[in-house]
Specification:
Length: 408
């Protein structure tokens, strides 16, 4: 393992690998620093020989896999999206279908790293501030690791998400407020009580799990970086870490170059990063979220500034789509590719479509759209746009008169 220290992303101060997350000098966020020179070469051989999960990338993760508690997230399909691509005029469009994880979202990757790290530091209780999917993943991983779980969610989340979390029997706390208020409360609790808040005091470790969505796509493309990625943004961590993953592959000699444009996707009802991007500002103005994409409803995104900086450096765009476009995006992906995504995926497909219409992608370029969560969790979003089944009596006559003409 090559993780060595934590380093402040703002002033560069270094700290030991402890459960800390802010710089004492400048209050900047900390991230894990690796010694890339000590890694085995060629690194891709080590990866390819590893387990068929995100843990094949263990040399570039901050903690070691523990087979007794691993739920094996990752190694999800990268689908060449021929039909959707044809509709959008893209020959080399790929869907990274990360809705097939143990709790049906990419959050299993970040939580997989956080939980082994929490065990390593000797925590008994796993906790989080969540917009839904994270609570789901923390509850499941804590159950498997034999830890207690206490997850905090805002009021009004989708039934499917809450149910899919409750089944693991965590303590679920529904806070009368939005995500940003939940997050603030969790930061206060983390100061007073020695709990492993995966996205607060373990955030430097947790967020590293997002890199595996960069590593995996590069491997599935035959060890090369895509020309474009389209990534949904809540806190912005995932987008930044996908790029960090690709950059690390370049730095360690696994891929020849990284010229990837990182495009970010938000909902119009919660678009603080897209707003700042459009206005040419470096600072994020927090908003009060109002959108059906509840998993992306973070009004004050912790990594927003880093997303902006990155997109400006590499030519990416940050766009927002309406709730209507989100539902259209969900339907379009389901009808063309057989993948049923949640509202966050509808945001991704909506923005992908806009970018394609605006001519951002070249015809030969490889475009990867990240589908990060599963559709049944937000079933409410499509309830009104799908057709009900056709009811018939069990007779051939009923079938021929009511059904046959519809299927032709
Ligand atoms: C399904 C889904 N996709 C994407 C994201 C965005 O993650 P991040 O906070 O790293 O931007 C989330 C966050 O909760 C999510 O639930
Ligand atoms: Zn600092």
């Amino acid at each position: 393992m090559s993780a060595q220290q934590l380093k402040c992303r703002e002033c560069g101060a270094v700290y030991p690998l402890d459960p800390i997350f802010v710089c004492e000098r400048c209050f900047g966020p900390l991230e894990v620093l690796y010694d890339y020179d000590t890694l085995p070469r060629p690194l891709q051989r080590t990866f390819e020989a590893g387990p068929k999960s995100m843990w094949r990338y263990e040399p570039l993760l901050p903690s070691r896999r523990d087979p007794e508690i691993d739920l094996a997230p990752g190694f999800s399909p990268l689908l060449h999206a021929l039909r959707l691509g044809r509709k959008l005029g893209l020959e080399r469009l790929y869907i990274k279908n990360d809705s097939v994880n143990p709790t049906w979202s990419f959050k299993d990757r970040v939580v997989g790293v956080a939980i082994v790290t929490a065990k390593h530091f000797g925590f008994d209780v796993a906790a989080c501030a969540s917009t839904g999917n994270l609570a789901n993943a923390v509850a499941a991983h804590a159950a498997r690791a034999g830890m207690r779980a206490c997850v905090f969610i805002p009021r009004g989340l989708e039934r499917g998400k809450v149910l899919a979390t409750s089944v693991y029997r965590p303590t679920i706390v529904e806070v009368d407020g939005n995500y940003d208020e939940v997050n603030r409360l969790c930061a206060q609790i983390a100061e007073e009580h020695r709990w492993a808040f995966v996205n607060v005091n373990l955030r430097p470790y947790y967020s590293e799990g997002g890199k595996t969505l960069g590593f995996e796509v590069a491997e599935q493309l035959g060890w090369r970086a895509p020309d474009h990625v389209v990534v949904p943004i809540a806190s912005g961590s995932l987008l930044v870490k996908i790029h960090k993953g690709l950059s690390e592959l370049h730095r360690t000699g696994v891929i020849p170059s990284v010229r990837t444009k990182t495009h970010g996707a938000q909902a119009e009802g919660c678009a603080p990063v897209a707003n700042a991007f459009a206005a040419g500002q470096d600072q994020i103005q927090p908003v009060k979220p109002q959108t059906i994409a509840r998993s992306l409803a973070i009004g004050d995104p912790a990594d927003g500034r880093y997303v902006l900086r990155l997109a400006r450096e590499n030519g990416g765009r940050i766009l927002a789509v309406s709730d209507e476009e989100i539902v259209e995006g969900i339907s379009l992906l389901a009808e063309t590719e057989g993948v049923f995504t949640e509202t966050a995926g509808g945001v991704t497909v909506g923005v992908l479509r806009r970018l394609a219409e605006e001519g951002v992608f070249g015809p030969e370029e490889v475009v990867v759209a990240y589908i990060t969560g599963m559709g049944l969790k937000t079933a409410e979003a499509v309830e009104d746009v799908v057709a009900p089944p056709i009811a018939i009596r069990p007779t051939l006559r009923d079938f021929e008169s009511n059904v046959l003409s519809l299927v032709r």
